[in-house]
Amino acid sequence: MHSVTGLMFSEYLLSGQIPSVKKVNDEEPLLPALLLVNVNPTHKGGSRILSAEAKYAAALIDRRLQLGSKLSEVVTNKEDALALIDLFKDEGYMLAERKGKFCVILKESSSPQDMLKSVFHVNYLYWLERNAVLERRTIAEDCKPGGRLRVSLDYMRREFNYVQQDGQVLGWVTDGLIARPLPTRIRVGCAGLP
Question: Which residues form the Root UVB sensitive protein C-terminal domain (predicted)?
């Protein structure tokens, strides 16, 4: 994934087009990393020049994003593995932070839509890192209510469809992310995992 994958959400959210999340946070979030989507050429709104803030945030996220990480490289104990599997049981991916990286673990059934969701999720996790007082703890603790992974997953689930619909209205194709993730995918329920 390259910095090209970064900017749709940031510009979209900076433009004020997204529904307010003031119920969750005191400020609107900055979700900066998704540009590898196609612009619909029939959209009459014209293109905007991307802000320096969005470009900078997208570049930072791009350097930290690992789409297709191995679960064994992300977790170091059974408690963390079970917490991630439980939290993301209804998603086509899992997400955790490890050594400064946003590690997206793709499930065997992961679709382009799941990859798009994961990048949206990473953007909000980045925003929390920059703007919220939620400290990063262990993976298991971050999966609990009030933890960074739980809060950011709840936000993604609540807001993703709105952002996707509004993005389509603005001329973005948001059916999924076309990316070449690392070749690793996991099948939950095998290799000793529940």
Answer: 64-174
What single-letter DSSP state applies at residue 192? T
Pairing of strands 93-98, 65-67: unpaired
Q: How far is CA 2 from CA 34, 47, 50, 61, 167, in A?
A: 10, 21, 16, 10, 21
Predicted TM-score of the model (pTM): 0.71
3-state secondary structure at position 12: helix
- At residue 70's C-alpha, the angle toward residues 127 and 7, to 5°, is 30
Give the tens place of pLDDT for each residue, 48-96.
Answer: 556 788 888 888 888 999 988 999 999 999 999 999 999 999 999 999 9
CA distances from 170 to 26, 31, 159 (A): 26, 17, 17
Q: Give the separation between CA 108 and CA 93, rounded to whole angstroms.
A: 9
- Written as one letter, the residue type at 52 is A
